[in-house]
Amino acid sequence: MIPFHALYPPMMQPEPLVWMINPSSLDEEGKILAVLKILCGLRMTVMDLMLHSISQRPSMATWREGFFRSKALAQFLNVLGTDKRASEQLHVNLRPLAIEMVVDEVDAEMEAAKHIFHMSSKDVTPELLLSFNLDTLLTEPLQETTPLLRRILLSAMQTVRAVKENKHQNVETHCTVIESQIANIRSQNNLAFQIIIHSRESCRVEYCD
Question: Model-level pTM?
Fold first, then answer.
């Protein structure tokens, strides 16, 4: 039998470990098993290989770029998600990062919503107070600008069962009022919350009369 490495000219011979196996005689699973056996012989694990190949070492630049340019990371996480033990470890290890990402996103949303709440005393006219519409002025813009914050607030305000049964018809209004309170705490250049309070008080007075 001709040695596998003899098939290659001297200047085109592959790396030494490749000489051990003729890939044309193996199916996909066979190739994977062969690689695993090579790793085992080198006293390395699959994770050792992956971590090293995506490290910041200059010699790994090509492999690292290929890994992150492809969908490999997402596929890897999806595979882990199908395993109960892996899912539990992911939940524990990624939870602090997830919380930090949510906090940053909520802060960015509130910054983006500044213009919705910003009002000066000159803007508050009798006409505005008489025609004030909470849904048009605040709720609808906030639904578009702060979707993550509203989802958190809505989740905190009602159970999953209540959402399915649509028990709380005015939950979006409550959410808008809470967001207005938050904006009022974040900035003193915000009169939207005071207008809401004024409108609610006016409605109560009219109702009592």
Answer: 0.64
